[in-house]
C-alpha cells in the first residue's frame, strides 16, 4: 500500500509504558507496579468525580450534549472568559490537531523549543509542514524572535511549563514572543498542561487565558489530564479569541468527547479542593526528589510541573536505568529519544516515591 509520503518522516508517538506491560513481560504483580511515567495525578480520580461517573453509567447509550454548554459555562466562570472563546477536545491533544489542520500545509513551518512536547512535531508533519526548533529547551525570547523573523512560521509553540523538561517560562518572556509576531500570519499556542503547578509555585510563571485574550493571535491550551486527575477520560480545552475558536470548530468532529467524560470534566472543574490537595501533596513530595538528587550528586532541572527531570552523567545511560527500573516494576520515562541522557519521573505518592528511591538507589551504587 502506498501511503502519503509525509508519513515516512513521522515517528510514532511513544507513550509512557502501561502497568499491563510490566505485569505481562516481567511477572510483577499489578499492585506492585509503580507507574511514574505519564504525569498522571497520583491521588487518582477525585471521589466526587468518581461518583458522577457512576451516576452517568446508565447514560452511555446517549450521545453527549454536543454544545458542551455546561462544561463551557463552568470553564468560562473559572477563567473569566466567554463561552464563545472556548473549544473542548478529546484531550488538549485533539485541540492541537485542530490547530495544525486549520493552519498548516506543505508551504508552512512551525517553531518550537529544542526539546518539547512530541505531538507538536507529529501534527505538523502530518500536514507536510516544516518543523523548526530553537537551540535550547528553555523558551528564550531572543531565540524565538530571531527564528521567527527568519522563517515566519505559521505556529509558534510555547510549552510552559515545558514537557519533558519541567522548566517554565516567565510571563514577561512569553509576552515578548507574542508581541514580536505578525498577528495576521502567526498563531502563538501557549500550552499550559501543567499550569496549575507552576502558578502555585511562583506567580511570575502564572499565565492566565484571560490575560492572553488581549491578543487575537494566541491560543491557550489546558487539560483535565494532569492536576485534575482525568487522564483516562480525555478532556482538554482551547481558549482564544472567538474568531480563532470559530475556525477551529470547523475541524471538530461531532460528539468529540464521551458522555461520561463530559460529566466527569464538569464535576472535576467544580472540585477545586481536590486540585489544591493534589498540589500540596505534590509540593511536599517534589522536595524529596530534590533532596535525593542532591544527596546522590545528580543534576536535575528545577521543576514547575508534576514531574522532575534527572540529568544523568556520562557514566550512566538513561535507557539502561529506565529498563532496569522497569524490570523491578517501576515505570519512569527515558528521555533518550528526545536526545537527552535523562529520566523524567512523575512525582507520586509518598509510598510510590519510596519505591522509586529504593530501586533507583540500588542501581546507582
Ligand atoms: C499531557 C500533555 C498534553 C495533553 O494531554 P491530553 O491528555 O491530551 O489533554 C498537552 N501538552 C503537554 C505538554 C502535555 O504534557
Question: Which keywords apply here?
Answer:
365 residues; alpha/beta; Aspartate Aminotransferase, domain 1; Aspartate Aminotransferase, domain 2; 2 domains; seven-stranded mixed β-sheet; four-stranded antiparallel β-sheet; 13 strands; 41% helix; 14% strand; binds pyridoxal-5'-phosphate
Please sum up the structure shown.
With 365 residues, the chain is of the alpha/beta class. It contains 14 helices and 13 strands.
Fold-level CATH name of the largest domain: Aspartate Aminotransferase, domain 2
Mean pLDDT across all residues, rounded? 96
The termini sit apart by 51 Å
Strand elements, count: 13
Strand content: 5-15%
CATH-derived architecture of the largest domain:
3-Layer(aba) Sandwich
Number of helices: 14
- CATH homologous superfamily designation of the largest domain: Type I PLP-dependent aspartate aminotransferase-like (Major domain)
Count of individual domains: 2
Helix content: 40-55%
Silhouette? globular
Rg: 20 Å
> What spatial order of strands do you see in the largest sheet?
2-8-7-6-5-3-4
Bound molecules: pyridoxal-5'-phosphate
Amino acid at each position: 500500500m502506498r501511503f502519503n509520503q509525509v508519513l515516512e518522516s513521522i515517528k510514532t508517538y511513544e507513550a509512557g509504558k502501561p502497568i499491563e506491560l510490566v505485569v505481562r513481560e516481567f511477572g510483577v504483580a499489578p499492585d506492585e507496579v509503580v507507574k511514574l511515567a505519564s504525569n498522571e495525578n497520583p491521588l487518582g480520580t477525585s471521589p466526587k468525580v468518581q461518583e458522577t461517573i457512576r451516576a452517568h453509567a446508565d447514560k452511555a447509550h446517549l450521545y453527549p450534549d454536543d454544545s458542551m454548554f455546561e462544561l463551557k459555562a463552568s470553564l468560562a466562570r473559572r477563567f473569566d472568559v466567554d463561552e464563545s472563546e472556548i473549544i473542548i477536545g478529546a484531550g488538549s491533544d485533539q485541540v492541537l490537531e485542530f490547530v495544525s489542520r486549520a493552519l498548516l500545509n506543505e508551504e508552512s513551518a512551525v517553531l518550537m523549543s529544542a526539546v518539547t512536547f512530541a505531538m507538536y512535531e507529529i501534527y505538523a508533519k502530518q500536514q507536510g509542514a516544516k518543523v523548526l526548533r530553537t537551540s535550547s529547551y528553555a523558551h528564550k525570547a531572543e531565540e524565538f524572535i530571531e527564528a521567527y523573523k527568519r522563517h515566519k512560521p505559521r505556529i509558534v509553540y510555547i510549552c510552559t511549563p515545558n514537557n519533558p523538561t519541567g522548566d517554565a517560562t516567565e510571563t514577561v518572556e512569553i509576552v515578548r514572543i507574542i508581541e514580536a509576531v505578525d498577528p495576521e500570519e502567526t498563531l502563538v499556542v501557549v500550552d499550559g498542561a501543567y499550569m496549575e503547578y507552576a502558578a502555585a509555585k511562583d506567580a511570575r510563571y502564572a499565565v492566565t487565558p484571560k490575560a492572553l485574550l488581549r491578543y487575537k493571535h494566541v491560543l491557550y491550551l489546558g487539560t483535565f489530564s494532569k492536576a485534575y486527575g482525568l487522564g483516562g477520560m480525555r478532556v482538554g480545552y482551547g481558549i482564544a479569541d472567538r474568531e480563532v475558536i470559530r475556525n477551529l470548530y470547523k475541524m471538530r468532529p461531532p460528539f468529540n468527547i464521551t458522555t461520561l467524560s463530559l460529566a466527569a470534566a464538569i464535576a472535576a472543574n467544580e472540585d477545586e479542593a481536590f486540585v489544591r490537595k493534589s498540589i500540596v501533596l505534590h509540593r511536599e513530595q517534589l522536595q524529596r526528589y530534590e533532596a535525593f538528587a542532591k544527596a546522590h550528586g545528580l543534576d536535575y532541572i528545577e521543576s514547575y510541573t508534576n514531574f522532575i527531570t534527572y540529568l544523568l552523567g556520562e557514566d550512566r545511560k538513561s535507557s539502561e536505568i529506565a529498563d532496569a527500573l522497569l524490570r523491578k516494576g517501576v515505570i519512569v520515562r527515558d528521555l533518550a529519544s528526545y536526545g537527552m541522557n535523562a529520566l523524567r519521573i512523575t512525582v507520586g505518592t509518598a509510598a510510590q516515591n519510596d519505591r522509586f528511591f529504593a530501586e533507583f538507589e540500588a542501581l546507582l551504587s
